[in-house]
Predict the 3D structure of the following.
Amino acid sequence: MEIFMYFDGFLCASLSSEIERRLKFSSSFKDPAQYRFVESVDGRKWTVEDADKLVSEEFKLLREKEREKGRKWVNEAAVACTITHRDKLLKEAAERECFLCEDDVVIDSSFIKHWQCKTVRSKLSGLNGLVLGCYSSHKKIEVSSKSLLSFGKFGVYEVLSRKIYSAACYFLPPPLAESVILHQTPVKCISDQWDDIRQHVSFPIFVIHPAPASFVAFSSNIGYGNFRVTSNSLLWRSIRRINRSVNSNHFVNKVIFKSCV
C-alpha cells in the first residue's frame, strides 16, 4: 500500500479545558502529527438572544417551539456546536482533505493508517458526497449491499434510508464543505441534520462500515441534550454506555444491507 504521511489528517473540535477528552482522542494516534485540535465555540454563557442572532428566522421559530416543550436539542449549546463545525472544522475542510471529529470519539488505529494513503483519500473525495465514520438513526440504517470502495477491513456503502445523523466523525470533499458553509450561513439546522442540509445542498451520503469511530461516554458539560450528569466516575460511564445503546431506539454504527435491484 502506498504510504504518505498526512499531517493534520484528523481535526478534532474540543474546548482546551477538556483535558480528559483530548487525551482520550489522542490515544488513538501513534504520531501526533496526524491530528490537531481546534478550539470549540463555547456557548455555555449564551442567552437565547445571543444564539438567535446567528440563526435563520425559521430555525429561530423552531428553537422557540422546542424550548416551550422543554427540549434541548436546538438549545444555545447546539447552536454553538454548529458554529464550531461551520467556522472551525468545515472552514479547514473546504481547503484540504481532512476527517472532522468531535472529542467524544476514538478512531480505529487501522483506519488512521489507511488514511495516510493518498489513493484512499482521493477515492473518498471522488464520491463527491458526505462520508460518515460514525452514524446514528431512529430506524435501522439501510445501505447498498455492494461497497463502492474497500480498503483493509473497511467498506464504503451508499445510504438508502433517510434520517441518518451524526457529526462525530465525517468527511466532505473541499467543494462540498464550502457549499455546506454557505448554506449554514446563517444557521438553518444543527450540524448533524444531514437530511435537512442535503435538501438544499444536493449530495449522496455514505457510511464506512465497520465504523472507524466509536463513542466514548463522557458527561455533558455544555447542556447539550437531555441526558446530563456531572460525574465521569466508572459507574456513570457504565450507565451512559448503556443509555447510548438503548436510548430512543437509536441505531448507532449499525447497518442492514439492501439490494438496489
User: Anything to note?
Assistant: Confidence is low (pLDDT under 50) at residues 226-230. The chain has nine helices and 14 strands.
